Structure formats: C-alpha cells, structure tokens
Amino acid sequence: MRKFIGVLVALAVGVAATLAVTSPAQATAATFTQTSAWPSGYVGEVVVTNDFTVPITGWEVAFTLPPGSSLSSAWSTQVATTTPHYTLINTSWNGALAPGQSVAIGFVVTGTGLPTILWPL
After folding, report:
1. Cα 10 from Cα 22, distance rounded (Å)
2. What is the mean pLDDT of the segment spanning 67-81?
3. Which end of the chain is more exposed for a tag (fewer CB within 10 A), N or C?
C-alpha cells in the first residue's frame, strides 16, 4: 500500500460557484492511500482533516493523473474535471468540518498511475 502524507488541501469559502481560496499558510491536512489495486486500476482514498482551531465550511483537493490513467468514479465528493486535472470538492453534507474532524472520500482510477497533487490550485 502506498501512502502520501502531508498533501495540502485548498480551503474554499463561499457557496456553489463562488469560491474564495484561503492563503497557502491556511491549508488543511489530507492523506492519500491506495486501498486496493489490480492490474488495470486501483481504489484511492483521501482523508481531509481540519487541523485548525476553528471550523471550516468547505474544502477541495486537486491532482493530476499521468497519461494512461483516468478517474472512472468517485464517492462522497463532487468531481470537476479538465483531464488530466481533477478537483474533488466537498458535497453539501461533508464540507463543514469542526476542528479535528475528518472526512474520507474515495475514487476508482482506470490505469496504474498515482496522483500528483497540485498546490496551489
């Protein structure tokens, strides 16, 4: 199992299409884990954690996949795509996180290339 720790997540403040991204100094922690794999793909999980002392109202994680790999499905997240760039955005029910609270989101990748996290967005 491969693990990338310390991935930065941009915080989005606002509603729907109105997003105000906080400064890089105000980023929440996230971890990526490849939870299972087979010859033609894998399942990935990202856990977003609010490391602040105040609640947050939204989050997003952006990454790219190398040529030959693509996101085929996802759960507990909204997906914005400009292949090979993907942005995973909170849903209406998991965007607000109290201090120390986490949310897990998952996705299936066709292909074996692991994500490269983009920062800043």
Report:
1. 7
2. 95
3. N
- Exposed, middle or buried by CB within 10 Å (0-12, 13-18, 19+), for 23? exposed
- Average pLDDT on 77-88 reads 90
Q: How far is CA 121 from CA 3, 57, 90, in A?
A: 22, 18, 15
- Bridge-based pairing of strands 85-89 and 60-64 is antiparallel
pLDDT band, very low/low/confident/very high, at 118 (cuts 50, 70, 90): low
Instruction: Tell me how far apart the alpha carbons of residues 81 and 84 are, in angstroms, rounded to a whole number.
Output: 8
pTM over 0.70: yes
Q: Which among 117, 77, 79 has a CA at the least distance from the CA of 95?
A: 77
Tokens of 85: 């760039």
What digits encode the pLDDT tens for the residues 28-66? 778 899 999 999 999 999 998 888 899 999 998 889 999
